[in-house]
Amino acid sequence: MSDNPAAPGAGDTRAADPTGADPRGVFVIRPGAEPRAVRQYTVSAGTKRTAAHALIQTVDDVEDSREVNEWTLAVTTTAQAMVFDVKVTSGPRAGMTDTWSIDDRGLLARVASDGPGGVMREAFAAPLLPLLPREAIGPGARWNAPAAIFLDASHPAHASSIAWELISTDAGGITVRGTVSSQPQRIEGSDPPLEVSVTGRIDSAFDLATLVGWGAMRLEVRIAPPGATPPPQLVYGVLLEHR
User: Fold this and answer.
1) Which terminus has fewer CB within 10 Å in the chain: N or C?
2) 211 located within any domain
3) For 193, phi and psi rounded to 5 degrees?
4) How is residue 23 annotated by DSSP?
5) Which pLDDT score is estimated for 242?
6) Rounded to whole angstroms, how far apart are CA atoms 14 and 27?
7) Which of 92, 96, 95, 97 is closest to 66 using CA atoms?
8) Predicted pLDDT at 127
9) Strand-pair partners of 112
10) Is the dihedral of CA 103, 107, 112, 116 positive or negative?
11) Quick check: is 16 in a domain?
């Protein structure tokens, strides 16, 4: 892979190289059309946003639960990262606070959490903050990035990957689509043996400097004996809007 904007064009494809130079495991498959540019987050200290977040869970094609939360987000900066202080102001998770840090390409780390409601980080990050490549990219670019999908607070992260596509750009924003996939993972202690796998889709459009935008994510969870491919037993729908 090359950081040169004159690298192969939108019609070219290159073999994914997980041993490439990016230690985050992000690799570009296609750089997209001209004009290309290095896309990065440039959120300024003092930025404040409000957000509405909806989570719908379906079990065996029947809606099982629905919750809506609102939160506020305030940004400070350090030399290495942008720091997000999040406070849930209404909804079932009201009172929960989270602090995360993100670098200019979207590498996100949870710093601290307090209050009821379990994991909120991935509900915020997956729909709205794709992990961006270091290379210059343009419309039509495709890249793969690792992801940790939290199905709920009581289960560990499910190791997955997201194949991202840059659909379009404007003055300060991007529109992207992501396809979520994972290798089946054995459920410890299950008898007979069972595996869980996660697939899904993400669509989002947002401004890289202000985070104003929206995201939508659908995750399908299958739990089955090894080799079986039943319909999804669990479906999670996530809608997120930043204002």
Assistant:
1) C
2) yes
3) -60, 135
4) T
5) 86
6) 10
7) 92
8) 55
9) 99
10) positive
11) no
Q: What is the pLDDT of residues 133-143, one digit of tens each?
A: 999 999 999 99
Single out the residue of 162, 179, 243, 178 nearest to residue 207, CA to CA: 243
**Is 221 domain-assigned?**
yes
- Residue 94, Cβ density class (10 Å: 0-12 exposed, 13-18 middle, ≥19 buried): middle
Residues 151-157, mean pLDDT to the nearest whole number: 56
Residue-range definition of the domain harbouring residue 43: 27-242
Residue type, 191: D
For residue range 164-173, what is the model confidence (pLDDT) as tens digits?
999 999 988 9
| SS3 state of residue 74 | strand
For residue 233, the SS3 value is: coil
Is the predicted pLDDT of residue 13 greater than 80, yes or no? no
Q: How far is CA 183 from the centre of its chain?
A: 18
- Note if the bond before 127 is cis, omega within 30 degrees: no
Collapsing DSSP to helix, strand or coil, 88 comes out as strand
Is 116 within the bounds of a domain?
yes
Number of domains in the chain: 1
pTM for this model (two decimals): 0.83
